[in-house]
Amino acid sequence: MTETTALDNAHAAMEATPQDDALRLRFFERLADSELFLMLTEEAQGENISPELFDVADGQFVLAFDREDRLARFAERPVPYVALSGRILASLLTGQGIGLGLNLEVAPSSMLIPPEALGWLAVTLQHGPEEVQQHLAEFLSPAGLPDDLLTALDAKLATAVGLAEAAFLVATKSPEGGTGHLLGFVGAIDGAEPALAKAASEALTFSGIEAGALDVGFFRPHDAAAASLARVGLRFDLPQPEARVMTQIVPGSDPEKPPILK
Hints:
- The protein is α+β, with helices and mostly antiparallel strands and 262 residues long.
- 33% of the residues lie in helices and 23% in strands.
- Strands 1, 3, 4, 5, 6 and 7 form a six-stranded mixed beta sheet that branches. Strands 8, 9, 10, 11 and 12 form a five-stranded mixed beta sheet that branches. The protein has a two-stranded parallel ribbon with strand order 2-13.
- α1 (6-16) runs antiparallel to α2 and α2 (21-33) crosses α4.
- The mean pLDDT is 86.
């Protein structure tokens, strides 16, 4: 019996309550954030990959698995593959009329995802935050936020390994008396700000909240504002990476240079 994965759990929740849009959104968020192992016809040639295509009654599908051992059990023979995120795979397949066979025959999350759903996911992931300048007068304890948003933030920030020390969710008040909510990141590494802001934006999108806004800010650990955040905010600890040596860069691992389908 193999270990249950985050995709298995999200798929099971979605299948158990198919009318719940929030659970369906949460599954697609997990799909986007997951590392997938895509079956190829031959070894990757630089940034060029050639996925194995399978014809079924519903059209053509590539096959990907969220664990290497699941790919091996399905193939029952050594096969070439490449590791890439679900978001990159969705963007590669969008507009090509090709669907995704996920964990077929080897996991509880076995399913066929049609091209239309992958296209929707790719478009949804393109939505990003807008940068604005805002002065805040006060940080307050957060109140009245939906549990779905808190769950989505917790799951999303768990994927932001090493990008910051922690994040604090607070209510805010502007000098003019306006109110809102802010997710303040403390100790973000240089250059990680856009990725963290997009992660917060995606958590809001995939939480299923139809209307709402969440500001994002960045603070140094020794800023006075960081102490205020820690005093009144809801804390999210971001996981920190284990020390390891990278010996190979696989196609698709750099979001700025996605692999090219042949």
